[in-house]
Every structure is written in C-alpha cells, then in structure tokens.
Design a protein that fits this description.
17 helices, two-stranded antiparallel ribbon
Length: 426
C-alpha cells in the first residue's frame, strides 16, 4: 500500500528564447532526455514455486481421497486448466499494464520505505484491473465447457459475474477519483444488485439444534431479510479486505490463503455429501474460486516484498466481492465469515476510528525507521499495528508473514470448529 500521487500533465517543450549570439541560433534544438524509471522487477518465480506445494493436498483430495463423480471432476479439471492459462496471461499482462498506468500518472510511493532509495520509486498503481479482466474472461470462457442454455445455474452464474465486473469497475473508479469513505461503503451495495435481483435460491436458514426446543422450528424463512443479509455480506467482504492492508503482499496474500481454504472446504463437502444439488452448489463455488486463486497468485508474484506494483482498491473490491458471491451462492456464508476472522478482528479494532469517535488519519500505517528498516506500531486501530505493539518491531516482510500465518491459523480453526460441531450444532 502506498500513497497515490497524480500529476497534472504538462508539455515538456518550452518556447526557445531569442539569443544575441548568432551561433546559438543556428544550432538544432536537442530535446532533453527525461530520467527513466527503473525497470520493473521480474515475477518472483521461486516464491510461487514454494506456494505451489500447497496445491498437493487439494489435488490429493480430488483424485485419491474422495470418490467424486467423473463428470464433476472433469468440469473442475477443465476449470483448473483455464485458470492456469489465466495465471500465465496475468503474469504477461501486468508489466504491459504497468507501463500504461505510469503514463497516466497513476502511481504511488511506498510509505513503508520512506527515507530509502526504494521509497522514491514510482510504483504502478491499480494493477488489480488486470486480474479482474483476466478472471472475467476465464470465467466467461468456462461457460462453453460446463453450462447449457437451459442450465439452472446459468442465470446465477452470470449474475455473479455481473457483480464482480461491476465491483471491479467501481474499484477502478475509486482508484482514479479517490472517493471518500462514506461512498466506499455504498459501492459494494450497488455492485451486489445484479445478484440480489437474480437470486432465486432459498431464503431459509437452519436453526441450530440446541435452539430448536426453545424456538419450536428447525427451518426459518427470512424472506427479504435474507437478501439484505446477502448485501451486507458483500459490503463487509469487500471493505474488510480493503482496510486490512498497508504491507507489500498483504492484500493479495490474505486473499490467496482464504481462497485456498474455500477450495479445500468445497472439495470436502462434495466428497462427503450425497445430495446432487448440494454438490453442484459447492462445485459452482470452485468454478469461481480457482480462477481467483490463479490470477491472484500471478499478481502476488509482483506484489510480494519488495513490491513492484500496487494492487489498488480495484483488487481489494474485486477479490472481496468474488468471495462474497461464492459464499452466498455456495451456501456457506457462516464458514466464510470464520475464514474472515482476522478481517473481523481488524474491523472491530478499526471501528472507533472509522466511526469518527477517534480521529482517523488517511494512512493508518506503522512508523518506518530507515536506519534499521523496521516497523514500529502506532496507536491506530489496525491488526497490523496491534501485531507490532505486541510482538515488537518487525521488518515489513516478516510482519506480513506473521499476519498471513495468522490468516492460515484462522482457516484451520474454522475446519476444526466444523469438525467439533458436526452433528451437534446443525
């Protein structure tokens, strides 16, 4: 995360003044060369190779541990192949898009490196637009291989893509116009409208078994309240990713961890269930999460410390909306919220400042010491500063690893909680 700085375009050529020396007037005008920005660093392939090892448990569950219907497995593999292609396209497109956004003066300076040579480098901003576009192309192409014209899921699938596309557009508008916080809360509500209008699924919830004797019913129909809950979930997911930020790789890293946990959860539910409709709901989730994970990994290869690009609000809104849509249509919104436990804690810590009860600065980042290269926590209410205040001074890279490790622990806690409560809670 860095401060964005936009410059007013001005012509570099100045009218030449007349000179009394006739020899000077006969010399051709030689344009002065502008200082060039340093070339962007290549993707961090070694880092991605280490992350690829985490895909082994996922594919083990698909091919060996669970007996999954061959047709369903085929669709998942086709989607994975298209997602892999989207990964390589994203890796190639990010440097190209970086040059264009720099020409439009859409860049930022890394605040956490202020006072060092890296702090003076123009870092391309809003590269989440590349991820959003490639994701949408992959998701649209997948329809050819999986959905028929009379498919019951096609309407909701297209509604989900419309929400993601709408949110990506509004996120890029936010990056360009830098809209105030109150407007940021409204944007996800607008982007969620296609899904809310097209949603034709159930609006019921299962009452937890311990509460059934007191309430007297097992299933409660919420009606329009359920759709209101869907809209609020979209608002929370998009903004919670957006405010849990400030470090190289943190926004994309938390998305990668959560999407991987969602994939594992979906495969486990497909393998354990006998209900065809329930299986299709979780397969629907996989069809959207695999492209999200692949394109996010491509962006992370440039955004990991030291970051060559900034993701911008475009990516955080896009990723949050995609995961919200997946949780809603996959019918595991409760599980999704537990996966978002660090984001919930960060929101609760941020609430006094976001509500205006405590003054809120524009950038609630830790203090950087250019002499030591370490970050020191401030009194701002963020999980980043909370970790620094309790763990002591850390480098930006190590702090990000701690936070992503905590994200992984939260996801593991969710799986443990589901295992312990299975058969008793619902």
């Amino acid at each position: 995360m860095g401060t964005r700085k936009r410059l007013v375009s001005s012509s570099t050529s100045q009218p030449s003044s007349s000179s009394s020396n006739p020899q000077q007037t006969t010399q051709p005008n030689i344009p002065q060369q502008q200082p060039l920005d340093p070339p962007m660093a290549p993707p961090k392939w070694g880092f991605l190779l280490k992350l690829s090892l985490f895909s082994i448990p996922y594919f083990y569950l698909i091919f060996f541990h669970f007996s999954i219907d061959s047709e369903l497995r085929r669709s998942i593999i086709i989607n994975a192949g298209l997602s892999l292609a989207g990964f390589f396209v994203t890796v190639r497109m990010i440097p190209v898009a970086s040059r264009y956004v720099l020409k439009r003066n859409l860049f930022g300076y890394d605040i956490n490196k202020r006072g060092t040579p890296q702090g003076n480098v123009k870092v391309p901003e809003s590269l989440g637009i590349v991820v959003g576009i490639v994701f949408l192309v992959v998701a649209i192409l997948f329809q050819y291989f999986n959905f028929t014209a009379d498919s019951n899921w096609l309407v909701e699938y297209n509604a989900a893509l419309a929400c993601v596309c709408f949110m990506t557009l509004l996120g890029f508008v936010d990056d360009v116009l830098d809209v105030p916080w109150r407007v940021k809360l409204v944007l996800p509500s607008i982007a969620a409208l296609p899904l809310l209008m097209a949603y034709a699924g159930h609006t019921t919830i299962v009452i937890p078994k311990p509460l059934v004797p007191h309430i007297g019913i097992e299933i409660l129909d919420l009606g329009w309240i359920y759709k209101l809950y869907m809209g609020l979930l979209a608002v929370f997911c998009t903004n919670s990713i957006n405010i849990h930020a400030g470090l190289n790789g943190l926004e994309v890293g938390q998305t990668v961890v959560i999407t991987y946990a969602i994939l594992i959860h979906n495969i486990m539910q497909i393998g354990a269930s006998k209900d065809p409709e329930y299986k299709l709901a979780h397969a629907f989730s996989i069809y959207l999460v695999q492209p999200l994970l692949a394109t996010s990994l491509a962006l992370l290869s440039y955004n990991w410390y030291p970051s060559s690009v900034f993701v911008g609000d475009t990516y955080t809104y896009f990723a949050g909306m995609t995961m919200a849509v997946v949780g809603i249509l996959g019918h595991f919104s409760e599980t999704l919220l537990i996966f978002f436990l660090p984001q919930v804690l960060n929101f609760l810590l941020s609430l006094p400042q976001l509500s205006g009860y405590i003054p809120c600065p524009r950038h609630r980042l830790p203090r950087f010491d250019p002499q030591t290269g370490l970050l020191t926590g401030t009194n701002d209410g963020t999980l980043v500063n909370f970790f620094l205040r309790n763990l002591g001074r850390k480098s930006e890279k190590s702090l990000c690893i701690y936070l992503l490790g905590f994200q992984g622990i939260a996801c593991c806690f969710c799986f443990l909680l589901r295992y312990l409560l299975a058969g008793w809670y619902k």
